[in-house]
Amino acid sequence: MSSRHADGKIPVTVITGYLGSGKTTLLNHILREQHGRKVAVIVNEFGEVGIDGQLIVQDDDEQLVEFNNGCLCCTVRGDLIETIGRLQQRADQLDAIMIETTGLADPAPVASTFFVSDEVRAGTRLDAFVTVVDAVNLAKNLEQSAEAQEQVAFADIVLINKTDLSTEEQVAQVERDVRALNPLARIHRSAHGVVDLGLIMNVNAFQLAAKLQVDPAFLSDHEHEHDPEISSIVLRETRPIDMNRFMSWMAPMLQEQGDRYLRTKGVFNAHGFRERVVFQSVRMLTTMTRFNSWEAGDARLSEYVVIGRHLDRQALEAGFARCVAA
How confident is the model over 241-245, as a mean pLDDT? Predict the structure, then answer.
């Protein structure tokens, strides 16, 4: 069954959310559950290397397009228009487009793309902005980040994620915080990005009039500026990494400076493992899991992206080098 609307346009779901909220996890849940539907996925990451693209489930019914080294709401917006134009050329083969934005994206310029471009508007329908929020860290994110506030305020649907790591009282407070910024959004809860897809896809939730109330100038072609204190650094290593050494280096640093290292994510060529090892952190919360196996002929490489404030590249590169297996 097609997810198309009666107007024949391809529905577009934009997934936003601050760094580490669980956007990629939600996207993977959607792709796993979308059996038989053809979905194009556009991923935009803050940094020069695409870690998320390596972690997204893919099969013959999906097409992955990655934008790195820029934000959809500014430097690569023209690329977004061009890419959607190419996807529209095979509209009869597509049931939906999913866009995962960088965690530092201002949603308004992304949305305006679907109205200022005649080509995009002709063949697609902006279905919903789904903002994923981290139940554990939302209060701190809202306090420290204008982008986090904008993402919540602009959402059609707010997905409160990581409820398994929070108490009922904490989640209830998160709902109140969301309501204070956005009284109109639909709110759903999730753990590990699992949610009924009927609540977030093909729901026709994006309403232009309501968005203009939030930001009357959002159709204007305005500039978006990121916090200049925040940057990203990618660490690479072709030699196997000793994950015990890595954890001994990284875990204490995150515990002591979690407010500085906002988000890290990496795919590792880990010594002693046949599979890729994925390490992620959101402030002080860390996870490490095995991913798919290395295949014969794969170029084994560790890539680790650190996003944070006032990052010291030299110190991070030196610390990462000490994690190489003996």
Answer: 95
Q: Are residues 69 and 138 in the same domain?
A: yes
The per-residue b/e assignment along 40-68, b for 16 or more CB within 10 angstroms, e otherwise, is bbbbbbbbebbbbbbbbeeeebbbbbbbb
pTM value? Answer: 0.65
Please list the residues that pair with 290 across neighbouring strands: 277
Whole-number average pLDDT of the chain: 78
Residue pair 15/130 in contact (Cβ under 8 Å)? The answer is yes
H or E stretch covering 303: strand 302-309
Say if residue 250 is in the same domain as residue 190: no
Average pLDDT value for residue range 100-104: 73
Examine the domain organization and report whether 247 and 201 are in the same domain.
Answer: no
Taking the C-alpha atoms of residue 221 and residue 109, their distance in angstroms, rounded to an integer, is: 7
Q: Does some domain include residue 177?
A: yes
Q: Is 3 within a domain?
A: no
Whether 181 maps to a domain, the answer reads: yes
Q: Which long-range contacts (CB under 8 A, 24 or more apart) does 249-255 make?
A: 249/319, 249/320, 249/322, 249/323, 250/279, 250/281, 250/286, 250/319, 251/286, 253/319, 254/281, 254/283, 254/284, 254/286, 255/284
**CATH number reported for the structural domain that contains residue 20 in this entry:** 3.40.50.300
> Using CA atoms, how far apart are residues 304 and 268, in angstroms rounded to an integer?
8
The last residue of one of the domains, among 190, 214, 238, is 214
Nearest residue to 306 via CA among 48, 28, 17:
48
**How many domains in the chain?**
2
The residue with greater pLDDT, 54 or 95, is 95
Domain that holds residue 278: 230-321
pLDDT band for 310, please (50, 70, 90 cuts). confident
* Amino acid identity at 118: D
Please write the tens of the pLDDT for every residue from 35-88.
Answer: 667 777 777 654 444 444 454 444 444 444 433 333 333 344 566 777 777 777
